[in-house]
Amino acid sequence: MSSLVVDFVQQIVNAESVEIFEVIQELWSGYGKILRVKVDDKNVIVKLIDPPKSEVNHPRGWATDISHQRKLKSYQIELTFYQQFARLCDDNCQVASLKGFSNYGNGSIIILEDLDALGYQLRRSNLSIQEVKVCLSWLANFHANFLNNKGEGLWNIGTYWHLDTRPEEFKLMKEGILKQNAQKIDEMLNACKYKTLVHGDAKVANFCFSKDGSKVAAVDFQYVGVGCGMKDIAYLFSSCLDSNKCFEYEGELLEHYFYELKLAIDQKQHSLNTLELEEEWRCLYSFAWADFARFLLGWMPTHHKLHEYSLNKVEDCLKEV
């Protein structure tokens, strides 16, 4: 496989020399690898999408055709994002640029700029509150950048846990008031007046930090699509804050996000009512948590993210439905 990858990369970027020197990570469920490759005198990132030819080894047991087709579509959408939308991102919502792509057997190869070379070398698994704010600033700028963007070619509704793409998990979810209202919660999120593009998988692992921790870049745009920005905020919090910290810092962190969002909107000179936007999205914050909790309750009901705070947000949402 390595020699084939080298040949493809060499052809795509018209390089004299290509050397694979690091496997950064395996893609979910064995769908390929992310590699750091030396091309002449520069490093690039190669995302090798190579779907399994036999039974998929899903870590949670969700190896179904629906899951398979969703993943295949997600890689196509990620390529579309890098082709058509990434160049619209500025330094305040940094993403890698696309260097080239090609079909590869039953999969494909996407070649991206190496964010390490741009100064985003650090990865985090746990965040300080200040580091959470740095990620929120990135999201605020990303959301401001794509307000009212129709996201043509991306997911019609962003996030990997969207109800319409998760029928199997929904079927296994225990009966109850959240399941009864899941469709309505989804509809209310999708009916918001102010829409943007959401990253769709804005967990801490998908942010790359600068050396001084003051800025981040983001990766993994497989589930980017149209939606309410609160979906990204709730999911980010779930990925890096425990229940106690969510309770303690909710107000401070949401204030920071909306301050940064208004600042970014003003800079981009969008002609919209930022107070009305903030009021609408704040009201949908608990809905975003409830929507994600609905997915977890079907996918893995013992998940540690189903903690006191998230269930409290579910209750808040259900009072409003």
Structure, described:
The chain has helices spanning 2-13, 65-85, 129-145, 167-172, 177-190, 230-240, 243-267, 274-283, 285-299, 308-320; strands at 18-26, 32-39, 42-49, 98-104, 107-113, 122-123, 196-198, 207-209, 216-218, 225-227. It has 2 domains: 2-117, Phosphorylase Kinase, domain 1 (2-Layer Sandwich), CATH 3.30.200.20; 122-320, Aminoglycoside 3'-phosphotransferase, Chain: A, domain 2 (Alpha-Beta Complex), CATH 3.90.1200. The strands form 3 sheets. A 5-stranded antiparallel sheet has the order 1-2-3-5-4. A 3-stranded antiparallel sheet has the order 6-8-9, covered by helices on one side. It contains 10 helices and 10 strands. It has 321 residues and is of the alpha+beta class. 45% of the residues lie in helices and 17% in strands.
What is the N-to-C order of secondary-structure elements (H for helix, E for strand)?
HEEEHEEEHHHEEEEHHHHH
- CATH level-4 homologous superfamily of the largest domain: Aminoglycoside phosphotransferase (APH), C-terminal lobe
How many domains would you count in the coordinates?
Answer: 2
Coarse shape: globular
Structural class: alpha+beta
Strand order of the largest sheet: 1-2-3-5-4
Helix content: 40-55%
Number of helical elements:
10
Q: How many extended strands? A: 10
CATH topology of the largest domain: Aminoglycoside 3'-phosphotransferase, Chain: A, domain 2
